[in-house]
Structure prediction request, 429 residues.
Amino acid sequence: MNLWRALWGWAKGLQQQPLFANAGYLLGIEALNSLAGFAFWGLAARLYAPQEVGLAIAVLSAVSLISGIAGLGMGVGLVRYLPETSAPTRLLNTTLTSCALMGILAGSGYLLGISLWSPTLAPLQHSALYAAGFVSYVALSTLGTALKMAYVAHRRAGYSLAYAGLVNAGRLGLVGPLAGLGAVGLVTATGAAVLLAGAVGLWGFMPRLRPGYWPRPALSWADMQATVPYSIGNYVGGLLAQSTQTVMPLIVLETLGQEANAHAYVALLLGGLLASPGAALAGSAFAEGANVPCELDSILGRAATLGLAITVPGSLWIALAAPWVLRLFGADYALEGAGLLRWLCLAAPLAVIKSIYFSMLRVNKQVGRLIVSSVVFATATLGLSAVLMPVLGMAACGIGLLGGNGLVAALAVGQVISGERVRSFARSV
Prediction:
């Protein structure tokens, strides 16, 4: 009984600290997205043919990739600069307007050249309805990402959790009724859910967060001049890091086929769940560090310690139970994906270190180092995966992620050790 009281007191103490409270909400988002993702794709695996599931995954991955490109890192810039600006409403509207416009432009550009970079998705180009839906989905996804970062910038990540809840409830509610539409039904279910969440997020959540706020189109040159250089650097780094999630399914699709893409995607979802504590704590550490930069070392240290304390035991358990966990999606998923999932278990603790390191670079505005580290991560991950996939199959995705995360973790440890030596030398002088 005393042990339970001690644990409850420890948990309440963490909840009262902004770093861990907001990290809890962000972790809740990751857990909600992953668990709802398992439910969504589990239903899809039973209601849709594997070829339809694989095709829908490719479309949704393309939307994630293009919306990541369109965002220009403006959401990250919002987190870093909103605490400093004298015109927060104007900065918010400028960021949201820029993201929506860039989503439309990027989605249209992707469709124009789709036969070059993803021939399997070329039918999107042949239907005005499909093309308009795809571009709208990209714009909504880009805007939604900026909205969630706006909540984090206000240190109120609970609204981001509510936004994620709306998206997941909407797509789960539609996956069954739209089953007769095949792959189009899966994409439509997710796109409609994002539309619902975006409307509530703009006209419902933001006025609660910032009384008197009303979304209006705005493009302030002063705000863009201040934030865009920083945002672009983070955009490049974030895009490179995100490419392992968005490009990987496209590589699997073109190399191994639609069924293998479905099997690999489920394992990658589980791998993302393992790395989610580190991602959540890194996101909260970034927001906290932007508000109190003088405490950054302490914030990052606490975030890394708790992230590894959660991730390492979870990775060990999932590695042992991989076939049984994947069997929830079907025997074929367990047979084909267990090896990949075990490689992802090895990579997860290194992903925590990478995420915390990237937050340190963002708060310190070390954009050049962030880009270099992201290039190392993306090149190693995608390069190893592409080279090894024809020989090792989908397990190559896990080996690539292990290599990419490992290299960046080594860079992080090296920079920390180097910084400690410099500080020690300065104290001795």
